[in-house]
Hints:
The structure holds two protein chains of two kinds.
Chain A lengths: L3 H14 L3 H15 L3 H23 L15
Helix pairs in contact in A: 1-2, 2-3
Chain B lengths: L2 H22 L1 H18 L4 H14 L11 H18 L7 H16 L33 H19 L5 H14 L3 H16 L5 H20 L1
Helix pairs in contact in B: 1-6, 1-7, 2-3, 2-4, 3-5, 4-5, 6-8, 7-8, 7-9, 8-9
Amino acid sequence: xxxxxxxxxxxxxxxxxxxxxxxxxxxxxxxxxxxxxxxxxxxxxxxxxxxxxxxxxxxxxxxxxxxxxxxxxxxx
Amino acid sequence: xxxxxxxxxxxxxxxxxxxxxxxxxxxxxxxxxxxxxxxxxxxxxxxxxxxxxxxxxxxxxxxxxxxxxxxxxxxxxxxxxxxxxxxxxxxxxxxxxxxxxxxxxxxxxxxxxxxxxxxxxxxxxxxxxxxxxxxxxxxxxxxxxxxxxxxxxxxxxxxxxxxxxxxxxxxxxxxxxxxxxxxxxxxxxxxxxxxxxxxxxxxxxxxxxxxxxxxxxxxxxxxxxxxxx
Lengths: 76, 229
């Protein structure tokens, strides 16, 4: 049987292929204990981690859409 | 360059890198994915009726692995081990049906055919030497004017475009990344694609002079590095 770490690494790579970077990162984190010294793993893991952080930053710095304030006139 | 622009450029580069890394390991990824699915099937051992059907599909889908060209020795060992576990599960008298017997036979075939030794491995007797003869030197020339070479190039550019444009809203952001890649990494494909995009933008009334300057700078750098190579 595959170990949990091996399964997680597979899932991370498959998520990368689908461009689901947050899911890939979660799986890389699960796999990290088993692959901590593997150069290829470290490169992909850290690149994904950085990309997810960059995406978060970009999402945070996007301009907020302000709705026009409208005055409600209530008759009565 | 603003902070947001820098982050966007970094985002594009990272996505492009990860896409390429995954694409380059396409075969390996498909093997890992197959192994993972087989492992999932094995873990659902209790539900034997569903398992035999799923395993049958898996064996049919991956029958080309038996020729040993794609899978590594370690993977073959893994598959044998997992199939062995499944086979043990199916041997229980409670699970004996026509379907499980058929699957058992197929597992047996896989167990005997899967190679645990690399094919065509040279075997040398002690003291035996290998003499390597060097053939005449030849230069392989690619006809860049041929339709097939151009089509291959276009497909490759399409892959590059998918990577660099993913998550972008405007062509200009992707062009910016491509020009950086052409200049900093001396990436010939990024240069070609940038040229195409600049022409497209010019045809649509955009002011492209700053991009043309960057394109020329990247082009001259790439030419120099090719001359020095």
